[in-house]
Amino acid sequence: MKCWAGLLIVILLVFCPPANGAAVRITDDPGGRIGKYIYRYERLRASGQNVIIDGFCASACTIVLATIPTDRICVTSRAELAFHAAWDIGPRGRPVTNFGATRMVYLMYPSPVRRWIAQRGGLTPRTIFLRGNPLQAMYRSCPS
Question: Staple partner for 76: which of 38, 54, 100, 133, CB 3.0–4.6 Å?
Answer without folding.
Answer: 54
